[in-house]
Specification:
heterodimer, A: about 550 residues, mainly alpha, MetI-like fold, two-stranded antiparallel ribbon, 4 strands, about 5% strand, globular, B: alpha/beta, D-Maltodextrin-Binding Protein, domain 2, 11-stranded mixed β-sheet, 12 helices, 11 strands, about 40% helix, disordered N terminus
Chain lengths: ~550, ~325
Amino acid sequence: MNHSALRTPWPWLSALALALLGVFVLYPLLYIFTASFAGEGRSGWLQLLEDRRSLEAIGNTLVLACVVTLFATLIGVPLAYVSARYRFRGKLFITLLPLITLVIPEVVTAQTWLMILGNNGVITRFLKGYGILIPSFYGWFGLITSMSFIYYTYVYIGTVAAIGKFDAQLEEAAQSLGTPPVRARLHVMLPVIRPAILASALLVFTMVVGNFAISTILGHNLPLLSVAIYQAAVAEGATNLTMQSTLASTSVLIVMAVLFVNRRIIAKGRYEIVQGRGAKPQPLKGPQGLLVSAAAGIVVAVSLLPLVTIAVGAFTVSRGPVMRWGEWTLDNMARVFITAPGPLVNSIVYAGIATVISVCFSTLVSYLVVKKPNLMTPVIDYVSAIPLALSGTVLGVGLLASFNGGFLALTGTSTIIVLAYVVRRMPFGMRNGQAILHNIPNSIEEASISLGSPPLRTFLRVVLPMMLPAVASAAILTWTTTVSELSASLLVYSGGRETLPIQIFRLIDSGLMAYASAYGLVLVAVILVPVVVATTVFKVDLFASK
Amino acid sequence: MKKLAATTLLLAGLAAGANAADPVIYTTNPVPAVEAAQAVIKEKAGLTTGIITGGSGVLLRRIEAEKAAPQGDVFWSSSANTMGAFKDVLEPYSSPELANVPADLRVADDYFQPANLHVVTVMVNTDQLDGTPAPADWKDLADPAWKGRIILPDPANSSTGYTIVWGLSKLLDEATYKALVGNLVVSSSSSAVPKGVAMGEYAVGLTFETNSYSYVDGGQTEIAIVYPSSGTFTTPEYSALVKGAPAGDDAKKAIDALLSKEAQTELLKVAFRRPSRTDIKVSDYVKLPELSSIKVFKIDEEEAARSRDAFLAEWAALPKAGSSE
């Protein structure tokens, strides 16, 4: 770095960004790692080896992650295949899938599965009338069912583009060389799309490991890692960190191992398609078309079921924990807006502030990383991706432990909730920002500077407007995922600062499904309104960078 | 950008500071009870309250962990035997409202304040009996036909669970007690007990009448409440002032409001809590029997608190039907 470089603002901004990331990302992570070794008394790792229940939790979590990944792939890949290669009735609904995963928070999904298939659920009661008993939805059955029907969408999104881009000529070539069609597909297509499938499957794996909302609501008596971390954190508080930090470190190590495998697979198995000619979707008609429509329709309908159930539940009369299906009321909604509006207000304020900070920070930092590289920027790039490996519960534990006292006491403030939001969701904006910046040629910026415009003004007047579509889509993605955040905020919130997901979580725990549905419906609306306004009024492409 | 971030953080900090003095209540109570209490505290004392919910063991350990810099002001509510172990982080407070509470419910030095009286009930889901006759007494539940069909909250984490198991160990002979324990499934969450019975996952749940009655009141006709014929257990639940409560006198005002006739009547109507006060007639508000018509087996709370660790160790060694441990 020479002297002239130090006269521009960029090295200083890089240093500031690095310092912020150091304090709010690296420090909490290192804090819990060290606490797992150096807590009070014996090392947490020795205690872990003797704690049967914790070991069981780790084992169960790994098994659950494997099974859900398998099911999610088995649903997601065929769905991606038929929607990339064929045209059939109702295909439009499948293209709505990514949106569904965005707007339905996991805590709401878990709740609605219970309302449908729980022991007192609509379908359970209906079937019981005919003498058919289905297994208890708490435990493995419910966890696997509900998670598979949420996470297959990630496999779908991850593979549909790869299949669409696959050069159909290769398949034709194999067939003309005498390979039967089905084998041709398997032998030629599979190796090409395998990295995409594996990458999205591993993403699902890490999401199951980190999942808290569904695990705790449906897990019941089944020990699971994320729930064990939460319970240890609540029980130990911020003074004795041994067990919570050891369990949290275990979770981080599992996710890091998976991400490492992911990198190896992507590095190894790249097949380049040179000037590929993607297959044109073929129309499917007759019984075959009907079959595909029906199968895809069922998958999408099941994904939409939560939304329908909370919409009905929100307007259903209840007395205490008992729902009176078929009797309608506006009382539940009145509660959300008039009697107890705190959670709604808190959610909007905290998520709003967090979105602004997160988008500003990630835009600036991705600009630094892509356009103004210096010695610090590779480190910044790496550190800012770390939150992707932290589940919400782990992040909550880290923030709570690090900022309980000492040089920065944030426990019991709203700031720590906003901070948890920002750290957890900032990587989304980073990925988006970097993708778009790679497409903006340096020459435009250089032209502006050579015409005498100072660097900062050039960034604000020339580069930023070009980034704006990507920034807008990043802002909306950040908003939707932040408003529905539960696992980190549940650990760091304090009395009177409940957000919508926290309130829903508490109401479900008290068994008050009607009230929970009303808050859930409002939460979906809070998420959906900006998405609809942005995509229809401002024509923002939500998946601009994908 | 830097300025913006700094300003927003500052704003968030200011928002936090503005209501920092409001009393924060650490409570084990369900949402409707908490909201009724908050409304009365607001009306009587003019105070807005913050709420942190959790199990009694979890919350008390948290108060202990926060000893150096307390975050909460009031703990509400648990039994004396659970709270007894945490006396050094709590502070005695003789609320003027205690004049209306019978002397035998009060504790020495008014370390805790009796907030309501819990009655242990056997909550039965008649749809799940599958031919087994409905139980009328504890000894009926010792029958092997009930193995794995009775759920109760974990005595190690829940004062409800501890009260029930301690009482049973005193009321029943050893063989019946062991046979009954062998049929039990232990739940780590106490709210899962009434839910599990209401949803038909378990035929029987051992839980306080406040929980079982909410399903009867809601109109779920297959739920029946049994007061065992050889006697059931009652336990007062207490509130307590956190030592060094940051809200100061406001914390005491919040406790006064919690103990007031208005609050206890409201809690009876909304959450079916039997009042600790003598000036409220239960059957005026809900369809619960008067306490005088229920056979109660007296247990020694002092002894229960004293023997807690030894008893829990013994309990942990007994075989049970449940796989949650």
